[in-house]
Amino acid sequence: MQRNLYCVIMAGGGGNNFWPVTREDHPQHVLRGRTIHKESFLRGTFSRFAEFIPKENIFVVTLSRFALLVHEEIPELPHANIIEEPIGRKTAPCIALAACKIRERDPEAIMIATPCDHIISEGPEFAASILKAVEHVNAEPVLMTIGIIPTAPKTDYGYIQVHGGRQARNTTEPIPVKTFTEKPDAEVAEAFFSSGEFFWNSGIFVWRNETILAELSRYVPVLGNMIDGWPEVAGTENEEPFLARMYADCEKVSVDYAVMEKTDKAWLCPAQFGWDDIGDWDAVYRNVPERDGAGNAANTEHTYVRDARGNLLVTDNGEKLIAVCGLKDYMVVDTTDALLICPRDDKRYRDFIAGIALPGYEDYR
Q1: Which of 286, 260, 299, 233 is closest to 100 using CA atoms?
Q2: With a threshold of 0.90, does the pTM exceed it?
Q3: What digits encode the pLDDT tens for the residues 333-352?
């Protein structure tokens, strides 16, 4: 294993993508059990990278209030490798903080930054793709993202245009990036998809630690202040108030928008593995391994279904029977204290559950 190779798992938490299974105190990255898989997203991500990265070189960045949950999911992870954010500010501050921490340990570090809500298949091919990106970053100070060949004009992924046009999709070697666009609207996504010149951004990045620190300082001045001031406060009683002040001054900004859309150092390594981003209930539906002849997917064997098609049936009680009749493209999500019955359309779902923020539903958030 390469001793200067580090992995940063971004597990900020928050959000209500999977209500009622996830809550304010039970974030998406610890979504586990019978809901989708036997292990949580976080645990699965850690195990995947631990196959080729020393465990002591794996860090998890999360909100302070979720640090104990992270430790429960990965008890072998040293406490020092759980990096606590005071508030959520998206991925640019998260990566800046992790890079500051890693710089203390290894000035020559190479960082892999990854979300924790992916489903990855072809394990050996995954490691090979990541290590190919690492090899290139070892040789050149570039910012590498892992690119996915699009299967539809989706609007919830970033799109990356590379040099080489349509033929670029036939290579397995890293390619310089021409344009980097975060989550376009439907019309633009259709144009990108039809052109055949774009990849999806997987959200997995590989770079030299010193390179991403320099580019963050260049494009996000408040993060530059944090990066410059960190050595003086690290490990002292001033660290926590300093970090709280820096985060309060920083807007919510992704590394995609803050750096990748602006830098001249962006490269892409084509993925050679199966990939899906589990960002909503529809992604859960896609990844339930078995469906009946009418396209109904369930995480339990105890179902009674009649005249129903394309539904997602989820329960956290493996002994409870879910009986459904007359529904089409709905989701039925059953938990101990809440039951959701809603169309399996993500926009309608989000519009509907926004009401949970209203007074009277505090116990269910």
Answers
A1: 233
A2: yes
A3: 999 999 999 999 999 999 99
